[in-house]
Specification:
10 helices, iron ion binding (chains A, B), 386 residues, GBBH-like (chains A, B), oxidoreductase (chains A, B), dioxygenase (chains A, B), homodimer, 6-stranded mixed β-sheet, GBBH-like_N (chains A, B), elongated
């Protein structure tokens, strides 16, 4: 049953449980469900979420009502279960109806909230024994199911490879656009990773590059990075990856004081050339509201001088050295040479990447790269899951 | 004097003060300056910031040295003032020299750090009496000084207007590109604000739009928004702006409990259509590390159902109603009709914008808009200030 209650969303909310009983209190309606759960719904909350065509514009599915235009002492004159729906008559005259599937999905009793948090996707940590998820170019380009599997692996593992990509410049954009538009940077929409005499980043030299995230110099580091191999005839230049979340997690256990220092002391990252000058102050490890590890920001070659108090400076150096040392430990590292037609796609805010030095005299080496933000990945997953 | 010490930056560091005396301690060198200030520099910090050509690649000005490759018990065998520079001989053989201008600019004694924080640009709050900073299109397009003045007003006031912009579609992109590339979204690189029958956002209707920020549904709201008037023959549709920082600041004083609720309880914003589904959970008011108001996230028509505990729900509604009510108070509002050839450019993370309903039957109305991120604004300012 698709009721008016679902109008403000493109998702559907299957009925988990029937409404059993409703009771009107002073500032809320308490709903008892057929499975015994009791959910409070404040009058303000219910009125705010009225899905009727007067409150939500049906074309855009966006709210037109502003709750501030409703009496703050609004009360329910009557509330009842009517043909399975919660039906409420408000003081002042408005009438609202709520679908039980939608209502259960948005209930905010402790149990319902805990259930929703538990259902959120969690990162699957990995180490050197990681079984790399590999996907086929044709499948990803043609089959929405294969596309979804790839995107879920990206979201949950943060490191994937696609094989069979045409070795033409720009081919990676076709893959990227299966997700969404590309995020531009000062290095372009697509960037060419080649050794250049006038390099504006160490990435464009033949040097060894230590494990890093790209663009830590921006407020929002790019969510996804693509690296596509067109030619790789040079000696050296192997790709190295570590799961930054796994390292941070190990550090949290092995040296909690160092872990906290990297969470709490902000560090400046800088990238500057003749035309730009980006600076960003942020901690190396970011936690989310629940204290879970949410992001790693790291690139030694883009780091500015540490700026913290005299007291904290030795601790910050100890923590930084420890983290860098851990990125070098074999237990965490996946090392693999990228061949023409292969494409790395990884979570740039979690999976640190590096490359060994290569010898430009020994043969050509040409990778192309681009970025997409995490918003786009999560949006595409939700659309594919509808 | 441009010494090797400045190699890792494009900025120059004028000499503020001579080095007067240096003293080697166990884990640091204590520098006394000619004005009496004493700055500690830990051995690890100094070695990490050695600017020599072996430690920093001179072409990219990026560090090649990784501090983890240096002994963690490194010590200074000798430190002296040599021709005005700090010259250090390290155990193990390396020698480093530091320019006194650079050293003073990065000193981390309490006084030097406090000086740097005090010198950071601060938002200039405004209300209905705001003297709108207006800039001329030709000047901004041709004169780097006028460009810089405009960008500083954008950074510090968060609301500006440019006049004399050609009324051709796409003309705003020329102005935007004086800063940098445009940030694309699902609404395109440029978006057309017109009343549409198949609107995928209330922005594309003729409705009244309440005060809001754009794309609160993304992890990083766009830093700058451009709105360019090509045609405005319709009745109504005036632009309204408020300084969200000024309102948050007033709320902090007038109702601290409501202010805290908006800082601490995250709210979900949603934007969904047939091809996308963006969801972002974040508080309405974000504070920076020092507790200063850093960002406002608000769009009633893009807000999802509140999801917080039963206890907190009444407080959240009270705080939300209060904030919205304040955005409607005359004391905060700037109301102005935009004429053809005029362009609003404002800080989308601070300055909330709205429009009155307009009557599409009374005449044509066509605005174009685009976004640029704050990183790009700050980078352009730093380059222009070199």
């Amino acid at each position: 049953m698709q009721t008016a209650a679902a109008v403000a969303d493109f998702r559907t909310y299957p009925k988990i449980c029937d409404l059993a009983q409703v009771r009107v209190l002073n500032d809320q309606i308490r709903v008892q469900w057929a499975d015994g759960r009791v959910s409070p719904f404040h009058h303000q909350w219910l009125r705010d979420n009225c899905p009727c065509a007067e409150c939500v514009y049906s074309v855009t599915r966006e709210q037109v009502l502003e709750i501030v235009d409703v009496d703050e002492h609004l009360s329910a004159v009557d509330a009842r279960i009517d043909q399975g729906l919660l039906s409420v008559q408000w003081s002042g005259g408005h009438r609202s109806q709520y679908d039980p599937g939608w209502l259960r999905a948005h209930a905010y009793d402790d149990e319902s909230r805990a259930e929703r948090w538990a259902a959120k996707p969690k990162p699957q940590l990995w180490d050197s024994r990681f079984q790399l998820p590999v996907f086929d170019y044709s499948a990803v380009m043609q089959d929405p199911h294969a596309l979804l599997q790839w995107l879920l692996a990206l979201r949950d593992c943060g490191l994937t490879q696609i094989r069979g990509v045409p070795t033409e410049p720009g081919a990676l954009a076709l893959v990227a656009k299966r997700i969404s538009f590309i995020r531009e940077s000062n290095f372009g929409v697509l960037f060419n990773v080649q050794s250049k005499a006038d390099a504006d980043s160490n990435a464009y030299t033949a040097f060894n590059l230590p494990l890093h995230s790209d663009l830590p110099t921006r407020e929002l580091q790019p969510g996804l990075q693509f690296l596509h191999c067109l030619v790789n005839d040079a000696d050296g230049g192997e790709s190295i990856f570590v799961d930054g979340f796994a390292i941070a997690c190990a550090l949290r256990t092995e040296d909690p004081e160092a872990f906290l220092a990297l969470c709490e002391i902000p560090v400046e990252f800088r990238n500057k050339d003749r035309h730009s000058d980006y600076r960003q102050l942020a901690p190396i490890i970011a936690l989310d509201a629940l204290g879970d590890i949410a992001e790693i920001r790291m690139a030694n070659f883009l780091r500015g001088p540490f700026d913290t108090s005299e007291d904290q400076m030795p601790l910050l150096y100890r923590a930084y050295r420890r983290f860098i040392a851990m990125t070098r430990e074999d237990r965490f590292r996946v090392v693999q040479r990228l061949n023409p037609g292969e494409l790395w796609c990884f979570d740039n805010r979690r999976t640190l990447h590096a490359r060994h030095a290569f010898d430009p005299a020994s043969g050509a080496r040409h990778f192309q790269g681009c970025y997409i933000d995490r918003d786009e990945l999560l949006s595409r997953i939700l659309v594919l899951q509808r």
